Amino acid sequence: MNLTIRQFRAFLAVADLRSFTAASKYLCITQGAVSGLINEMESQMEVSLFDRTSRVVKLSPDGEKFLPAAMRVVEEFQRAENYARDLKEIKKSLVRVVGAPLIACAFLPQIIHAFKRQHPHTHVQLIDKPMSQLQKSIMLGEADFGIGPERPLEPEIDKQTLFTTEIALYCHPDYRLHKKNGSLGKDSKRRADCRRQRIHSDDLRDRWRAH
């Protein structure tokens, strides 16, 4: 058995309008096409769906039993059509953004919310990925673009600086930077990296730079 949605729609139209002629006008097809769809349906089901003995077409007992199921089929098919149509529209206006965890959690939600107020028909998908996977996500087509700290780029990827931010170390003025254990004083690379950052303390800035 291979029933089609056209057969189901023809069945419901005839059942509702009680006329093959009226059903053909409603479906915008010929009366012969409606009759053919119903005949094919009855042949496959091996039942008579309509009582054609009277002047008015009406459902047979088997047709009455079949009607609720046929209505559900057409309703579900219509929902599927609507979903597919919506999916197509979403795909047209979908922007996929991949962000490093801190940025995805702290910055992007507010930015996306403001963007959607200005562009309500554009759908934004936020993808949270480790920084090491941002470029890979873009190259694999999982995201349209990414936002994260500046890193060396793959040749296929371009970058644009959006903003700069400061990283600060907060500590007590008596904290010794050159402690023997975990010393920053002995680690020239870490000391050089940290020297480029802003230090917040009452009197620690000059002491930090001295190291």
UniProtKB/TrEMBL annotation:
The protein's name in its UniProt record: Putative LysR-family transcriptioanl regulator
Protein family membership: Belongs to the LysR transcriptional regulatory family.
Swiss-Prot/TrEMBL keywords: DNA-binding, Transcription, Transcription regulation
GO cellular component, one term: cytosol
InterPro entries: HTH-type_LysR_regulators, LysR_HTH_N, LysR_subst-bd, WH-like_DNA-bd_sf, WH_DNA-bd_sf
Pfam families: HTH_1, LysR_substrate
Keyword Transmembrane helix set for record: no
Alphabetized Gene3D superfamilies for the sequence: 3.40.190.290, Winged helix-like DNA-binding domain superfamily/Winged helix DNA-binding domain
GO molecular function: DNA binding; DNA-binding transcription factor activity
Positions of the HTH lysR-type domain: 3-60
Superkingdom assignment: Bacteria
